[in-house]
Write a structure and sequence with these properties.
single chain, 1 helix, 5-stranded antiparallel beta sheet, 49% strand, Immunoglobulin-like, 3 domains, elongated, 7% helix, 325 residues
């Protein structure tokens, strides 16, 4: 009988040991950060912190502290977040002191301003703790945010043009941070049948109707200054009529590739008939000074005009009227 009693005692001790081990396992309370995919210099980005409790009813204390990249300004925060010092924000909620523990799945947010000269990838970090999960636990989820400078190219076209005209197309270049750009590619496509005459800044006619600029700093190319304007001239076919589309794409190492050129995209060709003479009346065809006469000249629309008196040899006697339109 003693032998069996000893075995029973050993089993009881083992079971108690297992029970004690299960009771000391920490709860799996988590805080997970979500960052935007990318931002641009000067943007205000929203950071989200999703809170999940193993057992929300057992939680009496919640502490979260977030650290943003150096030089980034925290604008505001939800749920009474406290700006503890530059670059850090905290939430401290204690139930026994009247604080309300958030619901399971609650999302805290804060807004942070990206510096105007930012470029590249920046780290976010944070720690949290609860009375059930422990302290100094790392916030999960996204940890890096990429800042992509906003590089843009904007096309300007004439308001109208006439068949046979040579028109100038302007492309204004604006960099988010010109100092970080070392690769620049721009390709323009003109309407079918239109002839590209020439281009500034060594633009290359790659094939009929297309012109490109490829500048690579590491190969000796000079990246244009911020605000630079590239131009090219294109001839309108003599039989053109209606509205014609222009298109273009560009890319930089900082902004990405296959970005659409902004600005004007259509050019309307004016095919209005030239103004016609509607009325031409001279009350007296023969006059002797100091006699006077009335001359009434009317056109179908406002035009440049000059009314003058010449002798039979074409010599100017007097200019009576001149208008630039």
């Amino acid at each position: 009988m003693k032998k069996y009693s000893m075995v029973g005692m050993v089993l009881v001790v083992l079971l108690l040991g297992v029970s004690t081990a299960v009771a000391t396992v920490a709860a799996t309370d988590t805080v997970t950060r979500t960052l935007p995919e990318t931002v641009s210099p000067g943007d205000t980005a929203t950071v989200s912190l999703t809170i999940n409790f193993d057992d929300q009813t057992a939680v009496d204390r919640l502490v979260i502290t977030e650290t943003v990249p150096a030089g980034w300004e925290i604008v505001d925060a939800s749920n009474n977040g406290i700006l503890t010092r530059s670059g850090k924000i905290s939430w401290v909620i204690i139930g026994m002191l009247g604080g309300t523990i958030p619901a399971d799945g609650a999302v805290f947010t804060y807004n942070v301003t990206v510096p105007p000269d930012a470029s590249g990838t920046y780290p976010f970090s944070g720690i949290y703790g609860t009375n059930t999960a422990g302290t100094n636990l790392n916030v999960l989820g996204d940890v890096n945010l990429t800042v992509c400078p906003v590089d843009t190219i904007t096309r300007t076209l004439p308001e109208t043009a006439f068949p046979g005209d040579t028109v100038t197309v302007s492309l204004a270049i604006d960099f988010g941070n010109q100092n970080t750009v070392h690769t620049f590619v721009l390709a323009e496509t003109v309407p079918a049948g239109w002839e590209i005459v020439d281009a500034s800044n060594s633009g290359i006619l790659t094939r009929s109707g297309k012109i490109s600029w490829v500048i690579i700093g590491t190969l000796g190319g000079t990246i244009p200054a911020d605000g630079a304007v590239f131009t090219y001239n294109v001839t309108v076919p003599p039989d053109a009529s209606g509205t014609y589309p222009f298109s273009g794409i560009y890319g930089t190492n900082t902004a990405g590739t296959n970005l659409n050129v902004l600005g004007d995209a259509n050019l309307t060709i004016d095919t209005c008939d030239p103004p016609t003479l509607k009325t031409y009346t001279i009350t007296n065809t023969t006059i002797t000074p100091p006699q006077t006469t009335d001359i009434d000249v009317r056109f179908s629309e406002q035009v440049s005009a000059t009314i003058k008196i010449e002798d039979t040899l074409g010599n100017l006697i007097n200019r009576l009227y001149h208008s630039s339109g």
